[in-house]
Design a protein that fits this description.
It is a single chain. The protein has about 350 residues and is α/β, with parallel strands linked by helices. The protein has one domain: Zn peptidases (Aminopeptidase), CATH 3.40.630.10. Helices cover about 40% and strands about 15% of the residues. It has nine helices and eleven strands. Strands 1, 2, 3, 4, 7, 8, 9, 10 and 11 form a nine-stranded mixed sheet that branches. A two-stranded antiparallel sheet has the order 5-6. A hairpin with a 2-residue loop joins strand 5 and strand 6. The mean pLDDT is about 95.
Length: about 350
């Protein structure tokens, strides 16, 4: 029996519609699971981790002291418990930094960055680096500077994000690009850990897609009283318009938090863009975002303690960073420093 031309077209349309519908269902299911992974980052888990990490027993985590070493062991133990591999060749967690690298009278021995990785499934040799410094300013006599917000908050945020990405990987939804969890030392005395890493990168900087740096995300800037649903973003548009636009889109779709660019101003007298570890990546033209809650009365004081942290708000901020990292790691096209490319093209056109 002859099948009419119109019948064949109708069948093809039905098949195409079915395929589109199935794809939409799959995408919807993946988005729902992604939200579930993000929601595994909770205020309670962050609180539990931070009360341990910023405890008096860590002695303020001053670089190259027993307290900092104990904090490094805490981080390694967490990753091992989660089944997440060390980021160094051979699976080690510590990138050793020799004492002589630190031009500081406070450093009497070697220190170390702590590095973990979840390998990418499609482009494992492209890297999204999530960073936070885990050192603080130590103790003065019997007075311990716990550094709960600075930067215990960023440190445990990385741990919670690592756990969420590992859950995704265990369920067959691991990142397409590798996620590197970089806990740097020596920030408080001169950004030494991130500088050492970028001068001696474990993973090539030319294959580092971006650096998302988290430094103080657990408190509220007094200037934001009454408008707490915010986070300061610094540097997102300095090198990559793509990264900035992606960040805005992710926030609008998943978190709906005010992204405040007050300190992104080139004329900002605080110069925060130059004062945390992302800057050492930006110097090498790696696109960055710096997440920051602003300063407060307990900044660099012994009163920066875990009981002062706004844990539900900190969880929401961490989820924002997680969603941004997820998008960067899984999109088809990698992020580039497109502003540099556009600037170079404009200069070429002039000549």
């Amino acid at each position: 029996m002859m099948v009419s031309h119109y019948t064949r077209i109708s069948v093809l349309i039905l098949l195409f519609s079915f395929k589109v519908s199935a794809q939409e269902t799959q995408n919807s299911d993946q988005t729902a699971k992604r939200i579930d992974f993000a929601n595994s980052i909770t205020a309670n888990d962050l609180s539990t981790l931070l009360y341990s990490f910023a405890a008096d027993s860590m002695q303020g985590r001053m670089t190259a002291t027993p307290g900092q070493k104990k904090a490094a062991e805490f981080l390694q133990n967490f990753y091992e418990t989660q089944g997440i591999s060390g980021g160094l060749p051979g699976g080690g967690f510590y990138q050793n930094i020799p004492q002589e690298y630190f031009k500081s009278k406070y450093v009497k021995t070697d220190s170390e960055n702590v590095v973990a990785i979840i390998p990418g499934s499609s482009w494992p040799q492209e890297y999204v680096v999530l960073s936070a410094h885990y050192d603080h300013v130590g103790a003065k006599g019997d007075t311990i500077y716990n550094g709960a917000d600075d930067d215990g908050s960023g440190t445990v945020a990385l741990l919670e994000m690592a756990q969420a990405f590992k859950q995704a990987a265990d369920q067959g939804m691991g990142p397409k690009r590798s996620i590197v969890f970089l806990h740097v030392t020596g920030e408080e005395i001169g950004l030494y850990g991130s500088r050492y890493y970028t001068e001696n990168p474990i993973y090539p900087l030319e294959h580092t897609v971006c650096n998302l740096n988290t430094d103080m995300i657990g408190r509220i800037d007094p200037n934001k009283a009454g408008n707490e649903n915010y986070i300061y973003l610094i540097g997102s548009d300095k090198l990559s318009q793509e990264l900035h636009d992606l960040s805005e889109q992710v926030n609008q779709e998943f978190v709906q938090m005010e992204l405040d660019y007050t300190f992104n101003d080139e004329n900002d007298p605080n110069r925060f863009y130059y004062r945390s570890d992302h800057y050492n990546f930006a110097k090498y033209n790696v696109p960055i975002i710096f997440y920051f809650n602003g300063v407060h009365e307990d900044y660099h004081q012994p009163t920066d303690t875990p009981d002062k942290i706004e844990y539900p708000l900190m969880a929401k901020r961490t989820q924002l960073i997680f969603h941004t990292a997820w998008e960067v790691a899984n999109r088809d096209q990698r992020i580039y420093a497109d502003k540099l490319e556009n600037s170079a093209s404009e200069e070429s056109d002039k000549h």
